[in-house]
UniProtKB/TrEMBL annotation:
GO terms for molecular function: monoacylglycerol lipase activity; phosphatidylcholine lysophospholipase activity. InterPro entries: AB_hydrolase_fold, Hydrolase_4. Residues 6-74 form the Serine aminopeptidase S33 domain. This is ABD12 lipase.
Length: 172
C-alpha cells in the first residue's frame, strides 16, 4: 500500500458513492492512519475538481506521519538510539509516505470535526489538538472547525470512540 494508492482508491470509492447517493450528504470519516487519507482526498477533490465534501471527521488524528511515528509510544525506546530519525522517520519519506493532514487542513473549507480520547495510547492527543489549532488558524469560518475530547474516565483509548453512545448526537 502507498499513500498515492490509498488516495486513488478512496477517490474511486467517493465517485462510486456519489453516483449512487442522490442528494445525500457524503462525509469522509478517517480513523488513525485513515485521517491522513481522508484529508488527502478532501483536498484533492477541492483543488483538482472544485468539489467540496460535505464534511470531514477525523478520529484519533495526527499532524503528519513523521510526527506520528516520532511520538507514538511504541517508538519511545527506539528514539534514544542513533539513527532512529534516518532508519524510521526518513524511510517513510523515501517511500513517499507523508500523510500531511496539517498541510491539507490549511486549504479545506468544509466542516471539520476532530475527535480524540485523552487516553489514546497510540496517537498522542496533543497531535490531534495541534491539527485542530492548525485548521482553526487557517479556516476563514472558524465555526466550521470543532474539536471534541473524550475524557480518560470513559476508557475509549485509540479504538473505541465509535462505541460512545453520544457520538451520533455529537457528530450532528
Amino acid at each position: 500500500p502507498t499513500e498515492s494508492g490509498f488516495t486513488t482508491d478512496v477517490l474511486a470509492l467517493y465517485d462510486w458513492a456519489k453516483a449512487r447517493s442522490g442528494n445525500s450528504s457524503i462525509l469522509f470519516w478517517g480513523h488513525s492512519l485513515g485521517t491522513g487519507i481522508a484529508t488527502n482526498v478532501a483536498r484533492k477533490l477541492q483543488e483538482e475538481r472544485g468539489v467540496q465534501v460535505d464534511a470531514v471527521v477525523l478520529e484519533s488524528p495526527y499532524t503528519n506521519i513523521r510526527d506520528a511515528a516520532a511520538h507514538i509510544p511504541i517508538t519511545k525506546i527506539y528514539r534514544q538510539f542513533p539513527g532512529f530519525g534516518y532508519l524510521i522517520l526518513d524511510s517513510l519519506a523515501l517511500a513517499n509516505m507523508f500523510f500531511r493532514s496539517d498541510e491539507n487542513v490549511k486549504v479545506l473549507a468544509c466542516p471539520l470535526l476532530i475527535l480524540h480520547a485523552e487516553d489514546d495510547d497510540v496517537v498522542p492527543p496533543h497531535l490531534g489538538h495541534k491539527l485542530f489549532e492548525t485548521a482553526r488558524s487557517a479556516y476563514k469560518d472558524k465555526t466550521k472547525v470543532k474539536f471534541i475530547t473524550f475524557p480518560e474516565k470513559l476508557g475509549l483509548g485509540h479504538d473505541y470512540i465509535s462505541f460512545n453512545p453520544e457520538l451520533p448526537t455529537l457528530v450532528k
